[in-house]
Write the structure tokens for this entry.
Amino acid sequence: MFEQLSDRLQGVFDNLGRVGKLTEADVESAMREVRMALLEADVALPVVKDFVRRVKERAIGAEVARSLKPGQQVVKIVYEELLETLGEPGRLNFSGSTKPHVLMLVGLQGSGKTTTAAKLALQLRRDGRQPFMIAADTYRPAAVDQLVTLAKQINVPYYEEGTAAKPPDIVTRGLKVARESNAAVVIVDTAGRLQIDDTLMNELEEIKRRSNPVEILLVADSMTGQEAVNIADGFNKRLGITGLILTKVDGDARGGAALSMRSVAGVPIKFLGTGEKLDGFEPFHPDRLAQRILGMGDMLTLIEKAESEFDEAEALRLQKKLMQNQFTLQDFLDQLQKVKRMGSISQILGMVPGMNKFRDQIDEQEAEKRMKRVEAIINAMTTAERSNPKVLNASRRKRIADGSGVEVRDVNDVLKQFNDMQKLMSQMRKGRLPNIPGMPRGMMR
């Protein structure tokens, strides 16, 4: 998300960094580039105009003129104004004693509401709340079946009546069942519709009247582009939406919908859908997104992803094994699979400050192939071979190559990488680092 915008802004800031003293002409030139970058990222024109105006007013003012590094000061201003545009982090409203609290999901068809309902249910359960889902989308073929399948997959209670009954009636009866089962939060999955479809919007208004939701969340595809403004405005005027959930943010290099919808609707972005898998869902943090837009990385999200995959006790166990030269190929495979679950290599690089510019140098498909090849090779080994690679003679390596569909040289490459890692750890245990070409040997002691 925002990859194109981030790359364009990096070019603008690099140029500003070469200027010793920033003039008004420099600011004007930079703001023209920022304006074009935002428009190319599908940010709505009114939002772009307002953003550029605010940045320009501050950049030409005294706070930049007095700065020893005016280029960096402009970056700081752009960052702060991005935060202003993205708004405060939105959190779900659970005020009031009446339970269950109802969360109503609305949006266009194809925006990902049903999948989002399941992702949101998982998030609520992680937060210690008991979710309950109601299938009120009777228009899209197989929508009810999809919700039921997802609910069973994540073991969340649900209510459905198929497609014969009217959605407001289904919601009314579903809420009764939810109350009887002591559910804390009910997620209502409604049918997708255009904001200009008066009949279907009336139906949503009736569901709202009967269910009295604490949240009406607009689920929007981040690749919607300029139409995002009309969608947000239309739903907001009819229903009074309380928050946004942006889906498919991992598949859009532009991301203008995030800036446009937040500004037009005047309601906070609450969650981001970051992938097709049900765990691809995260609370929205405007500061982290602004940092990623400006190429500053997003270490907090990277740390959270790592913490979700790497248990502290497990990390200490592996550290001990490494230092005692007991780290096996099975351990290596386990860690490789955990890293894969954190995201693609380019996604991980994009979260590390200063590494954003290297993403284009990564061949994702080739990197993915190599990782799969390593997995296949280790999986083709016996337990004894993974524990002690020294037993891998020529005939065993040939068997492993045949079993994993690769060449013997590929098996040899994996074993060499593993041996190199063990040598590195051996040198570190002895209190010295390996020799690095081009660095004096004395520096490494």
